[in-house]
Amino acid sequence: MPVTPIVLHNEASVLNKFQELIEEIANESINDHDHFYVGFSGGSLGKYLCQILPKIKTDWSKWTIFFCDERYVDESDNESTFGFYKNNLIPLVALTEQQFISININDPIEKVADDYEKIIRQKFNMIKDVPSFDCLLLGVGPDGHTASLFPDHHILNENERLITWIIDSPKPPPKRITMTFPLINNAKYSIFTVPGKGKAEIIKKIFEDKIDFPAAKVNSKKVIWLLDQDSASECSIKFDTV
Ligand SMILES: O=C(O)[C@H](O)[C@@H](O)[C@H](O)[C@H](O)COP(=O)(O)O
Predict the structure, then answer these.
(1) For 113, which of 144, 164, 167, 174 is 20 to 30 Å away at the CA?
(2) Which among 190, 161, 192, 191 has a CA at the least distance from the CA of 178?
(3) Would you list the domain boundaries of the chain?
């Protein structure tokens, strides 16, 4: 079950806290091992990161950005998560395209997933053990999915592969690759950034009804949920607002 969420007043204060946490974790990682290996998700997280990353102070050259999940579409497609960050974030911060580990959709999706896992293992220099990402940035869908780990999907039980694929995503587009729980749950930090009324129902189901959605199964070494009063509004449990 997830930890106690941090509830802030509104989206602006959620994003301020998110900015603080990313700056702190990134610089802690860089000071400790001279790089910051982070996983980005798609969806509204992209909008949040474009707002806050230009404000943080860090050595961008030490960042490598992987995808917690990525849609199996060309980067020119509006649905491409890498395409979104390439067009909207790179112009705002000193990151290069090469610092993003993107996918090659000229290959079959199975090979894309295998190759992505190989690249992760190479970057971490870990052929056998499960790499530990410095930080994964996650969202939660209204159905309780995170990354491309959807409820009742067989890949939730994947315990060997670090990266797998689906061809029947309930959230379009249907074909995606995704990190699996063995990889997600070995990360040092996972941060869910979930402001807004639109997520109040799923937040209640996760934190009050304690329904074991995929997002609730994220059990990285430290899991942080950033909510605001709107997204926490359906919960009768009154969390301390900071
Ligand atoms: O590529 C994706 O679709 C995302 O990785 C996905 O897991 C997202 O994080 C959730 O669907 C929440 O998205 P919203 O915050 O936009 O609802």
Answers:
(1) 144
(2) 161
(3) 17-222
Q: What are phi and psi of 62, to 5 degrees?
A: -95, 0
Structure ipTM: 0.98
Helix-strand-coil percent breakdown of the chain, rounded to 5?
A: 35, 20, 45
Task: Report the 10 Å Cβ neighbour count for 9.
Answer: 13
Q: What tokens appear for 129 in the block?
A: 């053990």
pTM above 0.80, yes or no: yes
Name the token pair of 24: 């702190």
178-202 tens-digit pLDDT: 999 999 999 999 999 999 999 999 9
Tell me, in angstroms, the distance from the centre of ligand 1 to residue 195's CA: 13
CATH architecture assignment, domain 17-222: 3-Layer(aba) Sandwich (3.40)
